[in-house]
Amino acid sequence: MSRTLHLNAFLMGVGHHEAAWRHPRTDPRRVGDVRHFQELARIAERGTLDSVFLADGLAVGPAVRHNIQAVFEPLTLLASLAAVTEHIGLIATVSTTYNEPFNVARKFASLDHLSGGRAGWNIVTSAQSREAWNFNLDDHPAHADRYRRAAEFVDVAIKLWDSWEDDALVLDTAAGVFADTDRVHEVGHTGEHFTVRGPLNTPRPPQGRPLLVQAGSSADGIAFAARYAEAVFTAQQTLADGQAFYAELKRQTIAAGRDPDLVKVLPGIAPVIGGTEVEARALADELEALIVPEHALSQLSGMTGVDLTGLPLDGPVPELPDLSSVQSHQSRYQLVVELARREKLTIRQLIGRLGGGRGHRVVAGTPEQIADQIELWFSQGAADGFNVMPPLLPYGLEAFVDHVVPLLRERGLFRHEYTGRTLREHYGLPRPASAYAARELVTA
Ligand SMILES: Cc1cc2nc3c(=O)[nH]c(=O)nc-3n(C[C@H](O)[C@H](O)[C@H](O)COP(=O)(O)O)c2cc1C
């Protein structure tokens, strides 16, 4: 069977370009309006996209002076999107560093029930010190420790989703039996970070387990994804980088005893779409001109851990610390350093490049040119799909759905209509059986 592209719409405020809220094509007041996000979800569903995704951070810093930082809690917002859509998958970020497995398992099980099997969890370990300050800590735990906690966290969540077997609910009003307690299991987990008895207090989700997504591309991140992820979001600037990441993740997935086809790699793409290439570039330039330099400079300083604020914008990017000293976003840091070196960028040029997608690939061009790039990465072993990051919302998502999606369909790369009901079916992934039911079958 020929491969099908998987397309996720990454919804963020009024657009992924950091100056989107200042552009005349957007209305920044809409970031506080649930109808804005409901409209975006309906646009994505009209384009038969696989899913929409909401990122999340657990702190607001001084950067809020110049950019949108305050957002709705993503699972709360997704519940309102579930109510106005039928097919589109609903993926939210939830941190394993600043949450407890029982609560998180319950929230995603609830969203999966509310949405008829469309929930997905983007598993992140949170990397900002500012977030740690909101959770009784002076600084965030070390990179490797965060991932070790994340692994146990997901193990516990999986046990909790499996703690109700599919046919545990009896609902026998005559006999007065609500559930078959032989099919509702205590998980009895005791580990380094968590002690959880269970069972979960929400019956087994329609998908069995929500779709598991991950977004860290460091060595720790890839090892974690190879064990747990079913979809992987990543930032890659060049085809060669994309191919190398793709090959390494699939290699490690096989080494972890899993089928590499059941782990979908979705690099980010920020499409700046115009009727002509000139028009698209003009829009990209317009947005870049709206960047607030001092804001972008403080963002870059935060990302690199080097105070760049006093340096000349048109001067070279200075020597940056070795990756081994980075405990926050390791892969993103590496990407930024390599981009600046490879293209010998000045600080201003680097800010311009990061403004469009925070390190994700920005492609400015006609719908044909965007479709060509998508087809190239898909056919050359760098992607199973894409995390679509429109620079302006809703304008950029509408343009993608109305002008790029039809081309991808014409080329036989993308679905014309939804054939599945659940998020897993959209991604071509099986519904996992409860480990307890499987165990019973073995012992029977
Ligand atoms: C598409 C995408 C979405 C992400 N969303 C979030 C998010 O919502 N919250 C968050 O704290 N980190 C988010 N991240 C950052 C990752 O979780 C991770 O910290 C980062 O990729 C660096 O991971 P690494 O240190 O393993 O390389 C995202 C990354 C990508 C590529």
From TrEMBL:
Keywords for the protein's UniProt record, in alphabetical order: Flavoprotein, FMN, Monooxygenase, Oxidoreductase
GO molecular function, one term: monooxygenase activity
Record-linked Pfam families: Bac_luciferase (PF00296)
Superkingdom of origin: Bacteria
Hydrolase recorded as keyword: no
Gene3D superfamilies (UniProt xref): Luciferase-like domain (3.20.20.30)
CDD domains associated with the record: Nitrilotriacetate_monoxgenase
Residues that hold FMN according to the record: 56, 93, 143, 147, 217-218
Domain Luciferase-like, residue spans: 28-382
Keyword flag Flavoprotein: yes
InterPro entries according to UniProt: Diverse_substr_monoxygenases (IPR051260), Luciferase-like_dom (IPR011251), Luciferase-like_sf (IPR036661), NTA_MOA (IPR016215)
NCBIfam families per the UniProt record, alphabetical: FMN_nitrolo
PANTHER family, per database record: ALKANESULFONATE MONOOXYGENASE-RELATED, C2H2 FINGER DOMAIN TRANSCRIPTION FACTOR (EUROFUNG)-RELATED
Record family assignment: Belongs to the NtaA/SnaA/DszA monooxygenase family.
Protein name listed in UniProt: LLM class flavin-dependent oxidoreductase
Organism: Micromonospora globispora
